[in-house]
Prior knowledge:
This protein is of the alpha+beta class and 242 residues long. It has helices at 10-39, 61-64, 87-93, 96-104, 118-128, 142-145, 152-156, 206-211; strands spanning 44-45, 51-54, 57-60, 70-75, 108-114, 134-136, 159-162, 165-168, 178-184, 190-197. It has a domain at 48-198: Glutaredoxin.
Amino acid sequence: MRQDHAVVSPQEWLEARKALLALEKEHTHARDKVNAARLALPWVKMEKTYVFNTVIGRKSLSELFDGRSQLIVYHFMFGPTWEAGCPGCSFLVDHFAGMLPHLNHHDVTLIAASNAPLAKIEAYRKRMDWHFPWVSAEGNGFNHDYHVAFSPDELASGKVAYNFTEIESANAHEELPGLSAFQKGEDGAIYHTYSSYARGLEELVGTLMLLDRAPKGRNEDHTMSFVRRHDEYEKVRGRKAG
C-alpha cells in the first residue's frame, strides 16, 4: 500500500505520534480484554481418541503433551498428496524455533500436525531445517474434526465449516490453517480449550508485527502476497519492493 506522506517539523511529528499512541493504547487495552475473555472460555472434554505417527513411533494425543499440562497444535496445511507444505504455514512456523524453550519451560508443548504422511513431513522438515515437533495426522480425522481439512464431498457441497461459520467452497481448499489448544487434567482427562483460524493466527507471526512498524508496512498486493518459503527468496531476489 503506497501513501503520500507529509514532511513536517519534529514538533508536528511528535503531535501526530502522540495521537497515534492514544490509538495504540486503546488497541493494547482491547487486546488485554480479548486475552481475558479467551482465558475465561469454557472447556470441552475430549471423548474421541487420536493416534499420530511420529519420528519415534505412534503416539496418542495424550502422549503428545510430552509431560506438560498444556498442548498447542498448529494445523499445518500439508495434504497427503502434496510434495511440499503450504508457503503461508511455512512462513508462520519459521517463528517457532525461538519460542520453543520459553514455551516448554512454561508448561506448554507446541507441535504441528499435518495430514501428509510422516515421510513427506520429514523430507520437508529437513529441507526447511526445522526442529520443532511435527506429527502426521494421516487418516486419524484430527484435522478434519478441527475444521481445517475437508473431503471432496464436503468441498463439492458448496460450503464448508471454517472459522466458526460457513464459507463458500470456492474460498476453501482441502486444507486450511488453524491452531488449537488443549489442557490435560491431573486425572489424565484432556480438554479442548481454544481454536483459532484465518487472520486470527497473524499475531503468531513476528515478521508481520515488525512489518506493521516499518515505513512501507506489509507492502503487499493482497494478504501475504510477498511470502515465499524461506529457501525460495533467492529466486525472487530481483524483486524491488516499493
